[in-house]
Specification:
alpha+beta; Nuclear Transport Factor 2, Chain: A; six-stranded mixed sheet; 3 helices; 45% strand; globular
């Protein structure tokens, strides 16, 4: 398996990419074609749906960026990592933990997200 921190960084970079076409290329490189993403607010099946979902999140939180939070770990093909969504001043709007399943080639085949904290202003 690739370096866990690099894998998480690649994932976070996708969520931070504002250009839809560039984000689509990053998704295609990091996710298998049939990948799924689900969290308490949304389900996205396939690269196009994931790209659209990320675009909506970026519209809902303009000026915010995702950052890795804590130390990722893995067990077999399962990768667990946390993230924080911060505004330009560094205030945390949300924090979560994602569980990913990796394909044989190391790309993401599914991601299940959990919201650990959401600031009241972000709800």
């Amino acid at each position: 398996m690739n370096d866990l921190n690099a894998q998480v960084r690649r994932y976070v970079d996708i969520w931070n990419q504002p250009d839809g076409a560039q984000r689509a290329a990053l998704i295609d490189a990091a996710f298998i074609a049939t990948a799924s993403y689900v969290d308490p607010l949304v389900r996205a099946d396939g690269a196009e749906a994931l790209n659209a979902t990320i675009g909506v999140v970026q519209q809902q939180f303009p000026g915010h960026r995702f950052e890795p939070y804590g130390t990722p770990d893995a067990h077999g093909r399962h990768l667990r990592f946390s993230w924080a969504l911060k505004d330009a001043g560094g205030t945390v709007a949300a924090r979560g933990t994602d569980i990913a399943v990796l394909a044989d080639d190391g790309r993401f085949s599914s991601v299940t997200g959990f919201l650990d904290y959401v600031a009241s202003a972000a709800r």
